[in-house]
Amino acid sequence: MSKHTDSVHEVLLEKKGCAGIITMNRPKALNALNLPMIQQIYPQLKTWEADPETFLILIKGTGGKAFCAGGDIRAITDAGKAGGRLAQDFFREEYILNNAIGTCQKPYVALIDGITMGGGVGLSVHGHFRVATEKTLFAMPETAIGLFPDVGGGYFLPRLSGRIGYYLALTGFRLKGRDVQKAGIATHFVESEKLPALERDLTALKSPSKENVAELLNSYHVKCKIDQEKQFILDEHMEKINSMFSASSMEEIMQNLKKDGGPFALKQLETISKMSPTSLKMTFRQLQEGASMDLQDVLTMEYRLSQACMRGHDFYEGVRAVLIDKDQAPKWKPATLEEVTDEVLDSCFKSLGSNDLKL
Fold first, then answer.
1. Catalytic-labelled residue, pool 72, 94, 113, 150
2. Could you tell me if 130 and 188 are in contact, meaning their C-beta atoms sit under 8 angstroms apart?
3. 221: which of 53, 312, 334, 349 lies 20 to 30 Å off by Cα?
4. What is the pLDDT of residue 107?
5. Known active-site residue 70
6. Domains with residue ranges and CATH for the chain
7. What confidence tens digit (pLDDT) does each residue in 262-287 have?
8. What per-residue confidence (pLDDT) applies to 300?
């Protein structure tokens, strides 16, 4: 396969040694994921998974700044406003790809060097191995744009230790470098400059098993000394996160934060108060329900939620305020948590009948 890096090729697919390598190649857009990229990655992933000569699959981004900064939100916004098919197709095909990664029979290694948010998390977190570096910047910032932490967030977030997942989902808090691994999002931590050598060593393995891949990754991980002694950034707040975010409703979390009144709690209160109330309630319930679902059921639920967001107001308003006009002053409707009724919420989670996601 050609190693062509022409800008027309938004995704590069090549076989190297024992590995199939997927390279996202939109560096100017921070490797944001669009539908044509998904439509190239999915069939190739399935082909490599079935190919007896391919022993592992590796995914990475070009440009040195980002693994993948998320889905191509602008295109989805335009389509959603115009009632275009993309607002359905993008989420449907993206979630089908997330599931293919989560069920992949071959070792799947994501080199999450640089910005890894939203859709980029979906391309990595469900795979066997996620290698973070000192340049990794992770976040699920969707509640700020009237969306929810999708791409299987309802599966992996509630399974993180304590209530970290709820905290990351509701506040959009950014984790950097080694903290991404300490939080359990990455499995390994390696210096960014060592990634080319790691990739060479991975592709040179002879008919490797998952254990052989793990062994090689571990050998790089233990040699990496960057920030080795550094305490996990959320360590000092874990007790508070676990108690304040252990609640039976979004309103209760807000009450807990107000009641605590300390600097950490007030900072979270301020952050959460800027988010879409509908998104917050949707996200809270998504994680609550997702905690006991398998990945397929989570993605089916999330597809319903994505379409509710496409039908609603807050997603378009959030994108306007954050990405288009950049005034950072969204006018959410409804404007308060109390106004987001159970009835409104139930309708977001309701089956789409024949339009439901089929995995």
1. 150
2. yes
3. 53
4. 98
5. no
6. 11-355 (3.90.226.10)
7. 999 999 999 999 999 999 999 999 99
8. 98
> What mean pLDDT is predicted for residues 151-158?
98
Phi-psi region of 227 (alpha: psi -120 to 50; beta: other; left: phi over 0): left
Active-site residue, selected from the candidate residues 20, 80, 114, 119: 119
Q: Could you tell me the pLDDT band of residue 229, with boundaries at 50, 70 and 90?
A: confident
Catalytic residue among 71, 122, 153, 172: 71
317 an active-site residue? no
Q: Is position 119 annotated as part of the catalytic site? A: yes
- Out of 72, 94, 142, 199, pick the active-site residue: 142
pLDDT in tens, 40-57: 999 999 999 999 999 999
* The model's pTM: 0.96
Known active-site residue 150:
yes
